[in-house]
Amino acid sequence: MTGHDAVSGTGGTPVETTTGEVVLRLTDVVKTFPGVRALDGVQLEVRAGEVHCLLGQNGAGKSTLIKVLAGVHRPDSGHVEWLGERVAFANPQAAMRAGIATIYQELDLVADLSVAENAFLGHEPRRFGFIRRGHMAGRTRQILDRLGHAEMPPNRMVRALPAAGKQVVSMARALSHEARLIIMDEPSAVLAHDEVENLFRIIRELTAQGIAVIYISHRLEEIREIGDRVTVLKDGRTTAANLPARETPTSDLVSRMTGRDIEYVFPDRPAETVVGDELLQVDGLTRTGEFADVSLTVRAGEIVGIAGLVGSGRSELLETIYGARAAETGSVRMAGRALRPGSVGAAVKAGMGMAPEERKSQALLLGEPIYRNVTLATFARYARFGFTNMGRERAEADRIAESLEMRPRDVRRAVRTLSGGNQQKVVVGRWLLGDTKLLLLDEPTRGVDVGARAELYQVIRQLAAQGVGVLLVSSEVPEVLGLADRVLVMREGRVVRTAPADELDEPTVLDLVIAGSLMEGAAA
Amino acid sequence: MTDSPPTTKLPAQSPPVDPAETEAAGHATPTATAGPSGGLSWWHGDGGEGAKRNLALIGVLLALFVIGAATRWDLYANPDWVWANMLSILKLASVVGVVTVGMTFVIIGGGIDLSVGAIVALAGVWCTTVATQSFGAGGMIFTAIIVGVAVGLVNGTLIAYGRLVPFIATLAMLVAARGLAAEISQKQTQISQNSTINGIASTDLLGIPLLVYILAAVVAAGWVLLNRTTFGRRTVAVGGNPEAARLAGINVKLHTLLLYALSGLCCGIAAIMLTAQATSAQAAMANLYELDAIAAVIIGGTLLSGGRGTIVGSLLGVIIFATITNLFAINGLSTEAQNMVKGGIIVAAVLIQQIQFGSLSQFFRRNRLTTS
Fold first, then answer.
1. What is the pLDDT of residue B353?
2. Structural domains of chain B sorted by starting position, each given as residue range(s) with its CATH number in brackets
């Protein structure tokens, strides 16, 4: 299917419920980077007052498209019509002045400036060269009020705000520019569940005021809840435009993104899980303000999943078990032997391996070749008298790349050039060398596309089948339920429920996970 | 709920470091199996980019040679003079060159050592005290090296375990070590009476000065250490991504400590060489060597933010500086003009580096990591 077909209607029934006039229209937009056609004929039509969702796998061209709209990149061909005129923004400031505001995943706020200073950064109301602080605070207050956050003090340092608050400030900045289109790149990724509700409320208020929103998310249920129309991108092309967000069947959307029909593809559970001896014993582990009195066990060959929100202490718990943080009280034992608290070296020596939450900042040397990343924890074992054996390392990494179906296969390539899924394979693959007995996985599929996800799930299952214990943290409940044998639900630093995965379902877990936060939200 | 640091909450795909690349990666994966990062696999410690950059530096050296020939053809017409001049450039580069090898390790490891000149002075002064000289050449060499390593260990301990910022810790050491050197020497120039030590600077082997052999040996050892040993691998890992290194089980603190000790060791060796050249030592010796060494490392293509760099590049950086000095000397120009040109070269090298590697964004990312 070509982009043209999709736009002319074969891609789905166009919705007529959105009454606003078309504010933005992209026709056949192409953008190439050396060696890559990042955008290869994109069509997009956004109306005033609608939430237009962009859907597509990693690498489908969403980020490039946003950057074209935000004035970061200029398209090679095709045209962009904004408010009825053809435009080509020379730089981000030009796009901003024209009324297009972009809120990136990584919020570009200045942590040590106040809410008002951030909202009006670069266009502070001035008189005789002096900032009119009172005026600026007043206008910020108005904007915050429009966003339904009148309670936020304009003079509060942004550093002191939680992630959700920072997002509100980003939106305030967009409104301070009188933006008529706000592009949000995965805004929910940094938010807890109840905060997402609040985000949606804000979005609804914005669209009620006639502002158009382009909303990007990997989560289909969000798109259903907040979206009006959906445009699907695949390999830099529009594969379907203006689908109704609520009515279009999931299978339809997913197949347009991938050619596949299901979002989660879990390998079949083995007929019987062969669970070995107790491998990891955690007793009464506590770190004040993070988690309290956590006890758990993982047996050889068992996959234990921890479900919980961001901030429930799950990542901190994992890092403490691994020795990357020192526990205040409690103990961690591997095969009966207590580990020295706060020593990663001791944990690794005892057979633990960890794939941390933030691949790029916590796990990878992006500029270094794949094989050196794969052998980062083991290169000393192949060395002789301190001299590295690079031939052996490459061979071992090759073997790992082969078995994990890493693409590209050439292990001399820099990790930087890999997609998220393949980078994750590098991190997991690191612990397949040597004798890892227990693998700690923190959000192993974040930012990983559907295909690579399925492969990672397969790998995790295989490892368990080989007798490796796995402790898995994920904010995606279906992932925990689909993969784990046993599930621990964490809330506010405590384990509130432990049960075999088949005794739990998604609503139950979500309920357990969220209950506390809702109460906290009400109190605030 | 707000305890976990904000950096850990950000989505993994997000850092907009290189927009083209992130998208490109996704696209390229199905087809891009061709085109390895570089055919020079034997050179891999330096990577393809490093090799290319080193060729560019050699080009700069050739250009300087051409300039020299153009301005003083009367001298350059004589091959014997050219050879002798090259040797004198290398001899001029040898002491700073040794210091630069240690500096390269520290900077690749994500740190900086501002105290190298002061360590050279302290080691030089300490090994030429009357008491030390009474132990002979061996005692003097031993003392210089022990003093260098010891000061490096103090630096490393303060930085790795005292969590001082490298810039501040070594700045403090710069002041303190020069102070101690002045105290020990009582601000006097201490003459080296030892003919073996003094002979290091005046001996030639096969027509090449011994100092140049020492430089070559230190550079060769440094290259092997960086590119062929686990120590070198750890250095790159610790400098490139300290958190990743730590979570892979590398003892980042211990390694950081060792890096500064290594720098101190190089300073100890340099102290002997410089003392031999001057046949004396004083508290003001090796003044501003830290700047020469850092500049050479940067020109050599090592990222100031750590994680990538080459020994060969640093060596070429030192030689380029020495050649410029030589060029100005043979043309009878002032050192002031010379310093201005050097400053310009440093800026040009860093600008090229930023364009080539996008290191500015890396630098910012790294800063965020370390301050959180």
1. 65
2. 54-60+69-356 (1.10.3470)
Q: In this structure, how many other beta carbons lie within 10 angstroms of the beta carbon of residue B74?
A: 8
Interface test with A, best of B4, B234, B258 (most A CBs within 10 A): B4
Residue of B nearest to A363 (CA): B244
Contact A236 B27 (CB under 8 A): yes
Nearest alpha carbon to residue A196 among A523, A519, A524, A518: A518
Residues 6 or more apart in contact with residue B80 via CB below 8 angstroms: none
Length of chain A: 524
Contacts of B229 in chain A (CB under 8 A): 383, 386-388
Helix residue spans in A341-433 (DSSP H): 344-349, 370-374, 379-382, 390-403, 420-430
Is the CB of B186 inside 8 Å of chain A's CB atoms?
no
Beta bridge partners of A171: none
Which residue's entry shows tokens 């409940």?
A: A477
Give the CA count within 13 Å in the CB-facing half-sphere of B335.
1
CA distance A515 to A473: 19
Q: Long-range contacts for A67-71 (Cβ within 8 Å, ≥24 apart)?
A: A67/B19, A68/A29, A68/A31, A68/A39, A69/A24, A69/A95, A69/A100, A69/A102, A69/A181, A69/A183, A69/A214, A70/A95, A70/A100, A70/A102, A70/A183, A71/A95, A71/A96, A71/A100
Of A290, A368, A417, the CB nearest to B25: A417
B138-183 pLDDT, tens digit each: 999 999 999 999 999 999 999 999 999 999 999 999 999 999 999 9
Instruction: Tell whether omega for the bond before A408 is within 30 degrees of 0, i.e. cis.
Output: yes
Closest CA of chain B from A451, distance in Å:
12
Going from the N-terminus, what domains does chain A have, and what CATH number goes with each? 3-99+180-258 (3.40.50.300), 278-523 (3.40.50.300)
CA distance B110 to A384: 26
- Among B123, B367, B250, B337, which residue's Cα sits nearest to residue A344? B250
**Structure confidence by residue, pLDDT tens digits, A252-266:** 776 777 654 445 667
Q: Exposed, middle or buried, B129 (CB in 10 Å: 0-12/13-18/19+)?
A: middle
Helices and strands (H and E) in chain A: how many: 18, 22
Q: What is the ipTM of this complex?
A: 0.76
How far is residue A490's CA from residue A423's CA, in Å, rounded to a whole number?
Answer: 28
Kind and range of the H or E element at A413?
none
Instruction: State the DSSP H helix or E strand holding residue B5, giving kind and residue range, or none if neither.
Output: none
Rounded to 10 degrees, the C-alpha dihedral B58/B62/B67/B70 comes to: 180
Q: For chain B, what is the radius of gyration of the CA atoms?
A: 22
* Cβ atoms within 10 Å, residue B364: 12
Q: What is the number of CB-based contacts under 8 A between chain A and chain B? A: 208
Q: What is the 3-state secondary structure (H, E, C) of A473-484?
A: EECCHHHHHHHC
Contact A355, A428 (CB under 8 A): yes
Q: Do A365 and B237 touch (CB under 8 A)?
A: yes
Q: Is B33 on the interface with A (CB under 8 A)?
A: yes
pLDDT, tens digit, 9 for 90 and up, residues B12-46:
333 333 333 333 333 333 333 333 333 333 344 44
User: In which element (H, E) is residue B35 found?
Assistant: none
How far apart, in whole angstroms, are the C-alpha atoms of residue B176 and residue B170?
Answer: 9
Tokens linked to B167: 């810039």
CA A107 – CA A167 distance, rounded (Å): 7
Compute the nearest-CA separation of A84 from chain B (Å): 28
Contacts 24+ apart (CB under 8 A), A340-348: A344/B246, A344/B247, A344/B249, A345/B249, A345/B251, A347/A321, A347/A322, A347/A323, A347/B249, A348/A377, A348/B248, A348/B249
What secondary structure letter does DSSP report for A21? P
CA nearest A226: which of A237, A240, A214? A214
Q: Do A446 and B16 touch (CB under 8 A)?
A: no
